[in-house]
Design brief:
Helix content: 40-55%
Number of domains: 3
Low-confidence stretches: 86-120
Distance between the termini: 52 Å
Strand order of the largest sheet: 5-12-11-10-9-6-7-8
Shape: globular
Length: about 500
């Protein structure tokens, strides 16, 4: 029997109609008004009832299906999913604390429109740099933690060495030798609190106020912030389809004596440049190594997501070519497991090990050791390799879904970069609208996208550009999210035409 749905939509509100419908159906399920197996009205019937486009109902239903509340079967109808009971049981405790009811009661006449709008959460978040939360192997990770705690010794529970767990450093060295072609020994590795701490220590170690740091343009804004805090002058060098334009470095570096110190560091992401996704060519790699040796500078190689490559052979690390000991290789486990783990590492030339450790001992004494030992156990038992393999297949599917959705919605107006590896795409859209206005309009559809203009320092793109992460979205969410994103861009350009 089809259940009647009493839905009240307000077409005067600056909230998408599909979002209003989604929230009220979800509330009916969470409150127990709708039960598992209940059939809800066909999209056409509900569209006629509410006097809206059928596509509005389809978008609401598809989002509910993507989140596990509904099951849509062609020819059979749309039903409340069995696992919606899980959502219901989880929500009852919240209801007892009067949280869910207040959050879902979006149409209380005592609330103003701004309050209502704030209560609509983002449905499709194209955030980059995060793993797929729902497939993190927590059971296996918990077992590694339990094994580590059960065999904990007083030494393990005390102040450990600043360089970190020897067991973990051995496992990282083994991984880097086999998967990144880096001839590294455990004593060259220092465990840090994420890759960010490694970069901060290197800035403290090398930079004096006025010294120059060469960085890719575009690059992550936090990278520039780290070096700026040490008083460095950032020298942005453009990136093309072969990676960093090494031949332009000498032209862009300020000569010493003209208000700047020497260029002591070069920061690169050669395996998968952030955010363009290009790979530094072999010719450029050799040119960069020659430049560093000639100038007496060091190269920081940030290998932030090299584990995931979908097209072609996996690229070796730049550090594997380093015969002059000019490279510091930085990595972390944030994008493979989860950021809260806060375990990163630096692979150092022998001459830098003790200076690096002296700074680390002063700043934090040691990185928490229990998690390091558990991670060593996780890697040693094969769970890490299994997880990377499974995630690579999953992310490849999501990447393909994103590319198809972009091509379908934007056609030849979109160009995308970095689709061969990693967890994000950089896209550029032929549009007269600004990326800020498109992003703001997309939020009205429950879609969060990330403008990329802030990553460009000197060589800014002419068209609106975005970094779209896809790792933490399912295929259905990617499909609907890009559809809404495209509509937001159309809205912005249409508004400009009307205004003109």
């Amino acid at each position: 029997m089809v259940q009647e749905l009493l839905i009240d939509i307000d077409k005067t509100m600056n909230i998408p109609l599909n979002r209003q419908i989604y929230v009220q159906i979800r509330k009916a399920i969470l409150s127990g008004t709708l039960h598992k197996g209940d059939t809800i009205p066909p999209t056409r019937q509900l569209a006629e009832q509410l006097e809206v486009s059928r596509s509005v109902i389809i978008q609401a239903y598809e989002q509910l299906q993507a989140e596990g509340y509904l099951i849509m079967k062609k020819g059979s109808g749309t039903f409340v999913a069995d696992n919606a009971v899980l959502h219901l049981s989880q929500s009852k405790n919240e209801l007892n604390r009067k949280k869910v009811d207040s959050n879902l009661n979006l149409f209380d006449c005592s609330s103003n429109e701004t309050a209502k709008k704030d209560q609509f959460s983002v449905m499709y978040d194209f955030r980059h740099g995060v793993p797929a939360w729902d497939v993190v192997p927590m059971d296996q990770w918990q077992k590694s933690l339990i094994r580590t705690c059960r065999k904990a010794t007083p030494e393990l529970l005390g102040y450990g060495p600043a360089e970190g767990s020897l067991a973990l450093r051995k496992e990282i060295a083994r991984l880097l030798r086999s998967s990144r072609s880096i001839p590294v020994e455990p004593e060259q590795i220092v465990i840090t609190t994420g890759a960010t701490q490694a970069l901060d220590i290197l800035a403290r170690l090398f930079i004096k106020p006025g010294d120059q740091v060469i960085a890719e343009d575009p690059a992550h804004s936090f990278l520039r912030d780290i070096f700026h805090l040490s008083g460095a002058k950032i020298v942005p060098v453009p990136v093309d389809q072969q990676g960093l334009c090494v031949d332009q470095m000498d032209k862009l570096v300020i000569p010493q004596g003209q208000g700047a110190g020497p260029a002591k560091l070069v920061y690169v992401t050669p395996s998968h440049q952030f955010p363009t996704g290009v790979t530094l060519s072999l010719e450029r790699r050799l040119e960069l190594l020659d430049w560093a040796e000639r100038e007496g500078a060091y190269i920081i190689e940030d290998d932030y997501d090299s584990e995931y490559r979908y097209v072609g052979k996996k690229v070796s690390a730049l550090a594997g070519l380093d015969v002059s000991s000019r490279i510091v290789y930085v990595g972390s486990f944030s994008k493979i497991l989860f950021p809260a783990l806060r375990i990163g590492y630096a692979v150092l030339p022998h001459a830098l090990i003790q200076p690096f450790l002296r700074i680390k001992q002063i700043t934090d004494r040691m990185t928490p050791i229990i998690e390091q030992e558990a991670l060593a156990d996780f890697i040693r038992n094969g769970q890490y390799a299994k997880h990377v393999n499974q995630m690579g297949k999953l992310y490849a599917t999501k990447r393909s879904a994103l590319v198809l959705a972009l091509e379908r919605e934007f056609g030849q107006r979109v160009r995308y970069f970095g689709d061969q590896a990693g967890l994000h795409l950089l896209i550029e859209i032929d549009s007269s609208a600004s990326e800020e206005s498109i992003a703001a309009r997309a939020m009205n559809y429950g879609v969060r996208v990330y403008p990329a203009g802030g990553y460009f320092s000197r060589f800014k793109p002419d068209n609106p550009t975005f970094v779209l992460g896809y790792s933490n979205l399912c295929e259905e969410q990617i499909d609907v999210g890009i559809r809404c994103f495209a509509q937001a861009e159309i809205d912005c350009t249409s508004r400009e035409v009307v205004t003109a």
